[in-house]
Write a structure and sequence with these properties.
Layout lengths: L29 H19 L6 H9 L3 H6 L2 H15 L5 H6 L30 E4 L18 E12 L1 H4 L6 E10 H4 L9 E7 L3 E3 L1
Antiparallel strand pairs: 1-2, 1-5, 2-3, 3-4
Helix pairs in contact: 1-4, 2-4
Length: about 210
């Protein structure tokens, strides 16, 4: 899905403001430390309980935030909303409990998603030096295929090993695919970089690529 979170190469947002943080302080505000702890404990429990929850589903939750909120909120404000949505999706809490500001019951019953399934790792379709082109359409609700490389040609730099495909993992199903480090010339990606000799390396799943 192409949503506001995929900002690579987009213009018109103005300069990135430098934020002066105290490097000796891990969290600039106490509530952010509490949120981080809640998120880590929740993610750990959801994974261990084998509910079908995955990190890629959580990323998709962030992608579903309204564009105005996504652009306006900071990192931890986004995480707050994402944890609330995850709690509702998993049956841990309901909307009214968040409105009331406290739990309606001491009991917590997870709503199990479909069981995860494992598939065997695929064979390498590409090798270092192969010329490839990134597919134009991911055809999924969640993908790690950046919009700015779609339809662009690159060269396989190395085979990086099998990993779960995020597009499937976001649905609670684990499908293992080979991944590659693919090298793109900057001039292939950006018209204004026509004279550049720089390159960009991106880790890409096998189903994101076609041979040239």
């Amino acid at each position: 899905m192409d949503t506001i979170h995929d900002l690579g190469g987009r213009q018109g947002f103005g300069p990135i403001l430098h934020q002066f943080d105290d490097d000796d302080v891990m969290f600039p505000e106490e509530w952010k430390a509490r949120l981080w702890a809640i998120a880590m404990m929740s993610m750990s429990k959801l994974s261990k309980e084998e509910t079908g929850w995955t990190l890629d589903w959580y990323r998709h939750v962030l992608e579903r935030l309204p564009p105005d909120l996504y652009l306006r909120f900071d990192y931890f404000e986004k995480w707050t909303l994402a944890m609330m949505v995850t709690a509702i999706d998993e049956g841990i809490a309901d909307v009214q409990e968040f409105v009331d500001g406290h739990a309606g019951s001491a009991q917590m019953q997870l709503q199990h998603m479909p069981p995860q399934t494992e598939s065997a790792a695929t064979f390498d379709s590409f090798k270092p030096g192969d010329r490839v082109v990134a597919k134009r359409d991911s055809g999924s609700m969640h993908t790690r295929l950046p919009s700015y490389v779609r339809g662009r040609r690159g060269i396989v730099e190395s085979v990086t090993g099998p990993q779960p495909l995020p597009d499937r993992s976001a649905t609670g199903r684990i499908s293992i695919e080979q991944t590659y480090a693919v090298r793109f010339d900057m001039k292939e990606l950006w018209p204004e970089a026509a004279l550049s000799r720089d390159v960009l390396l991106i880790d890409m799943w096998e189903s994101y690529l076609d041979p040239v």
